[in-house]
Every structure is written in structure tokens, then in C-alpha cells.
Amino acid sequence: MTFTLRGRAKPLVLILASISLLAVVACSGDPGNGGADGARGNPGRIGKAGIGGEAGADGVQGIAGSDGLAGPVGAEGPTGPSGAQGPEGAKGATGASGSISASLTVTDSGTGYVGVVDLSNLGTKVDVTGAGFAAGESVNISIGSTGVVSATANSAGVISAMGITLPTSLSDGDVVSVRGDGSSGTTGWGALLVTNKNSTN
């Protein structure tokens, strides 16, 4: 069915529209007050521990420092024990052969005894003779370790030194060597026994 609005129907529409507008206005109230604050929320969850970091790379080696000053000299340590005895040393070279080509005779100037001097009977001097020296050779004569006189060999190589005073260090029972050292290398030897008869009486 089809309705056709005519001129009479227009006032009705306007009336209905006015009523609807009044209804809207009548239904519109004042704005309400704001609501109260909401309640505090629940605490958040504890976070998980973080993953450990990786180890860092090794550092670069530093430059060596300069040498420090020398410390003071320490105290001397105790003496160590004696070392073991060393091996025997090598033998020395053989010396040149000496020349013992002359012989000496020692005679008591007071008694005439040969090789013996008696201190109790003018036995304080001796006569020394020798042969086998070079002609004109100068011979130093010593009794014991004491040099006493020098004599010169004649053309036959004979020396003669008379009245030689004995060293005061000699005493009864001494046996001493009498030596003649020639300037040409000739050496002569003799022996002398010292006695003192008075010391045995």
C-alpha cells in the first residue's frame, strides 16, 4: 500500500519533531561528579637475575721498570772449613851438578890435631889448607854458617889460611863443616870436631 503525504500531513510532522526534541531535552540531566580514585594495584613480580657477562680479554703487558739501585754489601760470612790437601806437586828439575873437586884439611893451631880442636888447650884457632882449586882462584872459607876468611889459591891450586879464629858459638861436641867456595865455581869441604877435655875432668 502506498501512502501519499499531502499538504495536511506536513503540520503533523512538525509536531512530532517538536515533541521528540522536547523529549530529548527533558531526558538530558546534569553531568555527574567524577568517580573516586581506584584502589592501589598489586606489587609487581620480582625480575629474573641477568645473565653473567663474558670475561674480558687479557690486558697488554706493561713495560719493564728500570733497574733499582744496588743494595749495600752484606756482612762477611764465616770462614769455611779447610779444603782437602791437594795432590803432590811435580818434582822440580834437577839442578846443575856442583863442583866438589877440592879438599880441605883443618888443623888445630895449638895442638896440631887434624880435624879436631881442643878448646881446653889453646884450641881457639885452626889452620885450613886445601888443594884442587884453580890457579889464582879466590876462596871464601866458612866454619859452620859463619864466614871467617878469604884465601887465594897459588899456581898449583893450593890454599893456606893459618890461625883462623873459631866462632864463639862453637861448644864441646859440635861437629861443623868447613867450606871453601871458589870464585871459579870450585868447592872444597872439610870437617871439624870440637872438644873440651877440661869439661870431662
Shape, per Cα inertia axes: rod-shaped
Strand content: 25-35%
Our measurement of the CA-to-CA distance between the termini, rounded to an integer number of angstroms, reads: 208 Å
Estimate the mean pLDDT confidence: 77
Helical content class: under 10%
The radius of gyration computed from the alpha-carbon positions, rounded to a whole number of angstroms, is 74 Å
Order of helices and strands: HEEEEEEEE
- The low-pLDDT segments are 22-28
**Total beta strand runs:** 8
CATH architecture term of the domain at 102-200 = Sandwich
Largest sheet: 8 strands, mixed
Q: What is the secondary structure topology, with strand pairs?
A:
Elements: H1 9-27, E1 102-108, E2 116-118, E3 125-131, E4 138-143, E5 146-152, E6 159-165, E7 175-182, E8 187-195
Parallel strand pairs: 1-8, 2-8
Antiparallel strand pairs: 1-3, 3-6, 4-5, 4-7, 7-8
Account of the 3D structure:
With about 200 residues, the chain is mainly β. It has a domain at about 100-200: Immunoglobulin-like. It has 1 helix and 8 strands, in the order αββββββββ. It has one helix at about 10-25, and strands spanning about 100-110, 115-120, 125-130, 140-145, 145-150, 160-165, 175-180, 185-195. Strands 1, 2, 3, 4, 5, 6, 7 and 8 form an 8-stranded mixed beta sheet that branches. Strand 7 and strand 8 form a beta hairpin. The longest helix is centred in the N-terminal third of the chain and has 19 residues, at about 10-25. It is rod-shaped, with a radius of gyration of 74 Å.
